[in-house]
Amino acid sequence: MNFIDNFLNSITMYRLILYYLIGLILIAFAFSIFGILPFNPLSIILSTLLITAICWITNKIFSRIFNAPANIESVYISALILALIISPISSYQNIWLPLWAGILAMASKYIFAINKKHVFNPVALAVVLTSFGFNGSASWWIGTYAMMPFVLMGGLLVVRKIRREDLVFSFFIMVFVTITIIILFSGGNIINTIWNLLFNSSLLFLAFVMLTEPLTTPPTKNLQMIYGVLVGFLFIPQLHLSGIYSTPELALCIGNIFSYIVSPKYKLLLRLKEKIQYGSDVIDYNFSLDKKLAYTPGQYMEWTLPHHNPDSRGNRRYLTIASSPTENMLHLGIKFYPNGSSFKKAFANLDQNSPIMGGQLAGDFTLPKNPQKKCVFIAGGIGITPFRSMIKYLIDVKEPRPIVLFYSNKLEREIAYSEIFETARRNIGIKTFYTLTDTNTIPQGWHGKVGRVDAKMIQAEVPDYLERIYYLSGPHSMVTGYEKTLHEMGIKDNQIKKDYFPGFV
Amino acid sequence: MKRFILSSIVLISFIIFSIYYRGRNPSTISADQSSNTNTEPTPSPTDNQSTANISNTPLTSKNTPVITSKSGYKNGTFTGDVADAFYGNIQVQIMITNGKISDVQFLQYPNDRPHSISINQYAMPILKSETIQAQNINVDIVSGATDSSQAFIQSLQSALNKAKI
Question: What pLDDT is stored for residue A70 in this prediction?
Fold first, then answer.
């Protein structure tokens, strides 16, 4: 599992999905050569190229006219999804469906967007429109026995990468429960039906690739589960309203409306105000805000930084907002590594003239609702950002809470935001324990702790440690390490919260 | 303004195309049916409830055996049972000429949603030609139309059973 997580941490979500979809196209191509799939292998390639070209051109035109920075990966992803759900072109007469689906998918991102945030999954909306418009319907040909092992394997990686297990699980449960009830009442073979649904229908591809699209999913786990249940119910093939029958794409589009209603509508275009350097490789970026943003301290956003020749990790990242909603500036804490990604390099060169785009505010890594709840925050390196946000908020609203912070860094100079934590200690009684893990470089006169945060350190400083909620934020390997330590100390799973932190580079 | 014009061009073109396309092809269902010589009324299954009620109901009254031959099949037209294809029913009618399967007609197929129509549009001709070639139920499952293929085989089997001497 560690090997898988390490791999997932080294790649962005968009790149993972892109490679997954390209892999599926290539496998379908190979299967068609050997007659396992009933298509002409060339028509799979031709369809894919045609749809990609249409999407690319349409997006180019719209992004220019709408003056919006385009994310080229998402164009390719939409095109490949279309190629996998619309049957490959068998003659020139079948060209209209891929043609219009490609145009509408790209155009919908701009036309059906409110405040620069698109409402519907572009691919789903495109095939709903072609279906209502001229009966041009997606066949979801990817949903066959032959392709299913590959859809499943890649899909599980995607779901793990973007931590949408709850959403996908609630969707599956709803589909299976509703189908079972319908079959029980109407008669039929339940096992056969569920088997077919799992391995021979659009179910898995829809769930793994389209349902999980971050831009159209609600921001918190609970809302995501409701979204999953809603789409799961609407997915049922037996469902219909008069002559309009439920299709996977229609179910998703209706779910998207719910998602839009319950999601924050921000799409920010921010310009840099100032940078504050901590040590040699940590920089706190401060951006001006026109007006204060409403969000919960500890939440994250997806940030797009357009730059030339993005590497395999692309031009988007999820970054926790380090500032509190009470501040007039938005802070992002970034750690730079030697030989970092093109995104990080572009960030390093960020100036007042290059805007950065933020969207998809989300996250459950927030303070407990009950202010009496005792907490322990454990941060590793730049994983401190959500705690900076929460603690600054508590300082500004003058709300003392029973919180203890352990802040681990390799070197002293890497410690960021210490002035905030000092204010918190003085004003609202939140204690911070700093620890340095590189025992060879401990500076003279260091008053903090030495070594990684372990059971002994926690037990020594937090006598009531068994009653507390633990918040862990940092690199994946560190978070899983601390989780193990906490379990060994007798801390239960429901007392541990982990930040969404999909890698650093 | 430019944005509005571009959006309008795309949407209006799409609407005009859809109206034109629908005008030329009144509906994919009828276009598909026009390739069949079948004149039987095609009950349109609405949901699994109705599927369950009518499934496995042999419509033997339509069988019209005429002459027998050496192949093991009676000449004539034989209607298979209704088989459940998950999104609707499939029922086939076969024609035996000189003891051989000479034609396969679809009396029913899932046609209440575009998804099913598009699947069956490409699956039905394949199943039909495979049956005429194989002269038995050993036809390959059509990828992407497994439910339809399995239901087809089930209905075909019952039709051939009736055609057996």
Answer: 67
CATH topology of domain A375-498: Rossmann fold (3.40.50)
- Could you tell me the sign of the dihedral formed by the alpha carbons of A489, A490, A491, A492, in that order? positive
- How distant, in Å, are the alpha carbons of A472, B88, B151 from that of B44? 57, 8, 16
pLDDT tens sequence across A246-293: 788 999 999 999 999 998 777 788 889 998 888 778 899 999 887 778
Q: Does B57 touch chain A (CB under 8 A)?
A: no
Given CB atoms, is B1 within the 8 Å cutoff of chain A? no
Which residue in A100, A107, A238 is closest to B47 by CB distance? A238
Question: B117, A143: Cβ pair inside 8 Å?
Answer: no
Question: Domains of chain B by range and CATH?
Answer: 35-163 (3.90.1010.20)
- Domain residue ranges in chain A: 2-262, 267-362, 375-498
For chain A, the average pLDDT equals 88
- A1-to-A150, A313, A480 alpha-carbon distances in Å: 19, 21, 11
Segment-wise mean pLDDT, segments of 10 residues, chain B, 165 residues: 89 93 62 32 32 31 39 80 79 84 82 66 80 83 77 90 83
Interface of A with B in 78-97 (CB under 8 A): 87, 90, 96
Q: Does B9 touch chain A (CB under 8 A)?
A: no
Tell me which residue of B14, B1, B12 sits closest to A66, measured CA to CA.
Answer: B1
Distance CA A79, CA A63 (A): 16
Indicate if the pLDDT at residue A404 is higher than 90: yes
One fold for both A267-362 and A375-498?
A: no
Which of A38, A90, A129 faces B142 most closely, judged by CB atoms? A38
Report the residue of chain B nearest A97, measured CA to CA: B18
pTM recorded for the entire structure: 0.70
CATH fold for domain A267-362: Elongation Factor Tu (Ef-tu); domain 3 (2.40.30)
Mean pLDDT of A191-212: 88
